[in-house]
Design goal:
Distance between the termini: 57 Å
Largest sheet: 5 strands, mixed
Strand content: 5-15%
Number of helices: 14
Order of helices and strands: HHEHEHEEEEHEHEHEHEEEHHHHHH
Length: 448
């Protein structure tokens, strides 16, 4: 059955387009190649149904936000795998390493400016925007209020694990105050839970904590702990002028607990923003989906941010991706606004296949018939040229031997013409050529 279908298809194309066998076969091959290419493109452009995100330690703010993202993406049929880490620094290192299967992660701003990641190749990383503030909180024990980091000189300070953003920012802030490792101040690299335990036991003097590596329960516990104070950065404005990725925030008195008036007075905090950093090959549909989740998770008002402040297209160490920039400018596309995610993705991919077919295949097929007709006319004209040349030879005086040679040449022309295969639409020209060959033959025979 299949063996019979191909010749019929070939014959139909020849009759419809007026093509010869070779061009008809070429047209079929062109359609087949475009069809195969379109099918492969259709498969290749499908967005993955799984995203891998690197977050933070268990119970940290990063981990909590990642869980919220997972629930939102699941509504659209996309599974989010969450990889725990020690914090922003580790997240950025793994995102930069092609050997790790990670698509996106939370990264604290300013890590590349601190000099701790020199030589790290981040060219293939893009930002989907800043998604929330991550304030640095310094808790200390003492009767006297401390509002300058320089007053911790010579103390025992817990500054977070080396893989955390807490460690990177604490080191930068202390260095700006002349406090570095190896000096009179003892800088302890320990995780937030251990550091809080040591502070409460009065074995260290202060602890630096941030949401990338500390849980809300731990921060709340320190805020409510007797004898533990939260430092207010009196020089916050100066820090933001010298360290450009920092923002000055104000935590109002009683904002944590109105009944117990925690904190007791307004507290000035320093905070970088956290960016949603992705590898440049992230599928555009997934980029939109992640930004939609970011709007839902981070778009409402909070203690330290206004409603609608995040996510925001703030460009720091990483360039904003083209997909994210388009999203911030015009929002989701028409299809994704009006159709479920899976259906919008399907329709978008179908359109991506149809448009190339319209642009490439149809003009290509339309070009074949004129080319073929031009080729037939050229072949007929060539034999007419041979006839004219032969007829000029008849008009000249020639010997009997030359007349016989002309007759042989005419026989050769006639045989070649009889072997020509032309479509029906050229029947009149073909038979006209044969008739003219007969006309020249009669003249030649009369002269012979």
């Amino acid at each position: 059955m299949r063996k019979k279908m191909f010749p019929k298809t070939l014959q139909s194309i020849r009759e419809i387009f007026g093509l010869g066998p070779m061009l008809a076969l070429l047209a079929i091959l062109l359609v087949a190649l475009v069809g195969i290419f379109s099918a492969l493109w259709f498969i290749d452009t499908a967005p993955p149904d799984t995203i891998t995100l690197i977050a933070g330690p268990k119970d940290s703010e990063f981990q909590r936000h990642a869980e919220a993202y997972r629930r939102i993406l699941a509504r659209n049929g996309v599974k989010l795998n969450i990889i725990p880490s020690q914090g922003s620094l580790e997240n950025l290192v793994h995102l930069s390493d092609p050997g790790f299967h990670i698509d996106v992660g939370f990264v604290q701003g300013g890590l590349l400016q601190g000099g701790v990641l020199q030589g790290l190749n981040t060219e293939q990383l893009v930002s989907l925007g800043s998604i929330f503030y991550e304030p640095m909180m310094v808790f200390y024990r003492g009767e006297t209020a401390i509002d300058r980091l320089s007053r911790f000189n010579g103390k025992r300070l817990a500054i977070g694990t080396v893989s955390s953003g807490t460690h990177a920012l604490a080191s930068a802030l202390l260095k700006a105050n002349g406090i570095e490792s190896g000096g009179a101040t003892e800088l302890l690299e320990m995780d937030a839970d251990e550091a809080a335990t040591e502070l409460l036991a009065n074995r260290i003097d202060a602890v630096f904590v941030m949401g990338d590596s500390a849980s809300l329960q731990l921060i709340s516990g320190l805020l409510h702990a007797p004898g533990i104070r939260l430092m207010s950065f009196a020089q916050a404005e100066a820090y933001t002028r010298n360290i450009v990725y920092l923002n000055k925030l104000e935590l109002s008195a009683g904002a944590i607990d109105l009944g117990q008036n925690i904190p007791e007075q307004n507290v000035l905090l320093l905070a970088p923003t956290v960016e949603l950093v992705a590898r440049s090959g992230l599928h555009p549909a997934l980029s939109d989906l992640l930004l939609e989740a970011a709007h839902e998770v981070h778009g409402s008002a909070g203690l330290l941010q206004q409603r609608g402040e995040f996510p925001a297209a703030l460009e720091h160490e990483f360039r904003i991706s083209e997909e994210a920039r388009r999203y911030y400018t015009s929002g989701k596309s028409f299809l994704y606004r009006n159709l479920p995610f899976w259906l919008a993705t399907l329709v978008s991919r179908i359109l991506m296949v149809i448009v190339p077919i319209i642009v490439v295949l149809i003009p290509g097929l339309r070009l074949l018939p004129p080319l073929y007709r031009w080729n037939i006319r050229r072949r007929i004209a060539r034999w007419y040229g041979a006839l004219l040349e032969l007829e000029r030879g008849l008009l000249a005086k020639c010997t009997p031997e030359q007349q016989v040679a002309l007759l042989k040449r005419l026989d050769d022309i006639e045989r070649a013409v009889n072997k020509m295969k032309v479509p029906k639409s050229f029947g009149d020209q073909f038979y006209g050529l044969r008739q003219h060959i007969g006309f020249v033959r009669e003249r030649l025979l009369r002269q012979v």
